[in-house]
Amino acid sequence: MISPTIQKALNDQIALEARASFLYLSMSVWCDAQGLEGCCKFMQRQSEEERMHMLKIFHYMSEVDALAITPAIDQVPVEFDSVKSMFEQVYAHEQKVSASIHNLVALSVQERDHNTDNFLQWFVEEQREEEALMRTILDKIKLIGDGPQSLYYIDKEVSAINDQAIKEAAAEKA
Ligand code: FEO
User: Fold this and answer.
1) Whole domain around residue 29: which residue ranges?
2) Does pLDDT of 169 surpass 90?
């Protein structure tokens, strides 16, 4: 059994992961409408990953006999100024998620909750990878430029990054 404080913090984390999943799904729809097929697929996959993160916490809470709460999600944005600004928002959201995970780790250490601390280590690594991935995309956009002529190349780069991420995920499972 975990403490009420940890239970509340895990439920807050569930809400953050769920919001990320919905936000990224909305971004994928926006990319689709702009004709950015590679970015659309990338954001769809990111959305699914965030749902998987959320479910991971649900399963853990069930294992430790805690009550996981299915969160209400406020309406996420449906319009974005540019592909660059969209990826900047993704990066900012990932940084927020990382900070929240780090706070949760600190809390579990403080409470000597070794199970939760151990469970969260997977998320610490995942967040480091996700932040690095978003920085790679933003660096590419900086190099290519984000004017109308550049969108085709940005989309191609993001599509290649997405294909690589799919390959790496498959290799991890094998
Ligand atoms: Fe699960 Fe990328 O935060």
Assistant:
1) 4-173
2) no
